[in-house]
Amino acid sequence: MSRPIDPNRPEFELEILRQAARVFSEVGYRQSTTEHIAKTVKLKKSSLYHYFKNKENILFQALAMNLKRSLEPLLALKQDGAPAAQRLGAAIRLQVQAIVEAPYIGNLFVTDKASLTSRHLKQCLELRDRHEQILRSIIEQGIADGSLANIDSSIAVKIIYGALNGLPLWWKPNGRYGPAEIGSIFVDALVDRMLAKERGPASQPLKPAAVAPPRGKRADGSAKKSIR
């Protein structure tokens, strides 16, 4: 039985977005239809258009909602007086939490943002850039106060989000680690081991002598005599 139209229920619109994100993720955005989405939320296809203009609008609203939701705590963290390294760790934990709470939506930004109209894509990219600007700002503060290594902050942010964006592809709610544990693992790897001022031997570049010479050559480049 189809659900009656209720335009005064924003929570139902959120449910449509969550279910649509699941459909897009499981079926594929290009392969999915508004019929698929309407069926999952027990609406007639014609009733679905009362809430959203079309499939692309649903994708945009889902992505924008997720980006705004994950941005809010970062804005508060930016003004926090805690040390930069601590705030960076907190920021990563917040992003992990946002991703695992809505894994389907977060993954869509990576896989299907090209399906957005140019205007909608521009709005989503601006929201993404605000996330990255906050993290860059925190990293640069950490470099200035000596708690973080002197690294290009824009590259550091790309590494962080590169790791975070892969999370929905392998993390499972019933897996070995819960959200809090995953957050701690990410902070340990990305902050304590990669960005902290005091880093271990794994971060040191290999010395030339440690690289194996080409076959038939000594380390000094001279040819070896063959032994028969």
Which helices and strands appear, and what pairs or packs with what?
Elements: H1 10-27, H2 34-40, H3 45-51, H4 55-78, H5 84-101, H6 103-112, H7 118-145, H8 153-165, H9 167-170, H10 179-195
Helix pairs in contact: 1-2, 1-4, 1-6, 4-5, 4-6, 4-7, 5-6, 5-7, 5-10, 7-8
Q: Which second-level CATH architecture applies?
A: Orthogonal Bundle
Number of helices: 10
**What order do the SSEs take from the amino end to the carboxyl end, as H and E?**
HHHHHHHHHH
- Uncertain regions: pLDDT < 50 for 5+ in a row? 200-214, 224-228
Query: For the residues shown, what is the average pLDDT?
Result: 84
Q: Can you identify the CATH superfamily? A: Tetracycline Repressor, domain 2
The number of distinct structural domains comes to: 1
CATH class annotation: Mainly Alpha
Task: Briefly note the CATH topology name.
Answer: Tetracycline Repressor, domain 2
Q: How many β strands by DSSP?
A: 0
Biggest β-sheet strands, sense, barrel: none
* First and last CA, distance: 85 Å
Rg estimate, integer Å? 24 Å
Share of residues in strands: under 5%
Helix content: 55-70%
Category from helices, strands and their pairing = mainly alpha
Shape: elongated
